[in-house]
Amino acid sequence: MLFISPVHLFALTKITVWEHTVNDPTEIIMETLQQALDITKPEYGDYQLITSIKMKQGRALRELSKIDFSHLDLAHFTPTREREKQAIAVRIPLIQGLLGYRVCLINQGEQYRFANITNKNQWLASNLSIGQHQNWPDTLVLKDNGLAVKTSYKYELLFQQLAKQRFDCFARGANEIVYEQHTHQDLDLVIEKEIVLHYPFPLFFFVNKNNPNLAKRLLLGLSKLRDNGTSEALFEYYYQTQIEDLNLENRHIIELQNPTLSYQTIQATKKSKALFQQRYLVKSTH
After folding, report:
1. How far apart are alpha carbons 238 and 85 in whole angstroms?
2. Are residues 127 and 189 in the same domain?
3. Looking at the structure, do residues 92 and 231 belong to the same domain, yes or no?
4. Residues 140 and 171 in one domain
5. Are 107 and 76 members of one domain?
6. For the packed helices 28-38 and 212-227, what is the interaxial angle rounded to 10 degrees?
7. In a 3-state reduction of DSSP, which class is residue 119?
8. Strand partners for 169
9. Residue 251 in contact with residue 195, Cβ under 8 Å?
10. Total domain count for the chain?
11. Rounded CA gap, 177 and 285, in Å?
12. Distance between CA 200 and CA 139 in Å, rounded?
């Protein structure tokens, strides 16, 4: 009797992935994607990943919202209510919400300005300002919480402007600040030692609206990776050392609200947030 593997019963699925997702400096994003697709081969068959042309985030979102003639099937972003209208959000956080733990890049010799701040009111009274890209969703988050924000139109300029003291803090995700400080050593920027700003700021895969089967496949695959421990193992491999080096557990955590998230996303990320804080943070929040 001829045995046919279930994988061969499906046509090859070609998936065009945003170039920025493919080339993300942290390889966990693509490794998670590939493992989520691999673990669902029995249900959905084999796949081929195709890297998109280079495009900025705004265009990537527009491509994902196209029903016809789209050049993109999948990307990863932080969610907002508006983005969730443009594309299908796969509501399983990719890096346990670590992007929402924001640590300041500051100028050498400026640590004293942050030394006595332990809560939001003290931060607000300090008149410290934060540099942000004008189009980033968390720019609205910081402003809505009353923090002083100065914006720029270009990511790379923010490092230069911090070095020129146009603002006091460039708040970066705990998953990215070590890499960014290392790649900008010539500017004499250092990592602030006492504070972490926190707001719910998950990373999701977003899928083109004309491809709901891909969204279902990723939801299944990510659920399997979460349930079998693979997601936690990947997270620890990529981020355990960074979390320890940043001393997150002993920093003063200043909690901020994120008004840009949908109710569905807030509910979907509650468990992940609680588990992260239980595993990696010990100080009470303010």
Report:
1. 31
2. yes
3. yes
4. yes
5. no
6. 100
7. coil
8. 130
9. yes
10. 2
11. 21
12. 13
Contact 186, 173 (CB under 8 A): no
86 and 109 both lie in a single domain: no
pLDDT in tens, 46-76: 999 999 999 999 999 999 999 888 999 999 9
CATH code of residue 19: 3.40.190.10
Work out the end-to-end distance of the chain between its first and last CA atoms, rounded to an integer number of angstroms: 67
DSSP state of 5: -
Tokens of 270: 């509650």
Length of the chain: 286
Predicted local confidence at residue 25, as pLDDT = 80
- Tokens 């002993």 belong to residue: 250
Answering whether pTM is above 0.85, one says: yes
Nearest of 30, 11, 14 to residue 22 by alpha carbon: 30
If you compute the radius of gyration of the chain from its CA atoms, what whole number of angstroms results? 20
Q: Which residues constitute the domain of residue 222?
A: 6-97+202-245
d(CA 137, CA 78): 8
Q: What is the DSSP string of 195-214?
A: EEEE-----EEEE-TT-HHH
**In a shared domain, residues 113 and 144:** yes
123 and 239 together in one domain: no
How far is residue 159's CA from residue 189's CA, in Å, rounded to a whole number?
Answer: 9
Answer yes or no: do 120 and 86 share one domain: no
- Structure tokens belonging to residue 103: 């640590």
DSSP H/E element including 280: helix 263-280
For the chain, count helices (H), then strands (E): 12, 12
Task: Report the distance separating Cα 220 and Cα 23, nearest Å.
Answer: 24
| pLDDT tens readout for residues 254-269 | 999 999 999 999 999 9
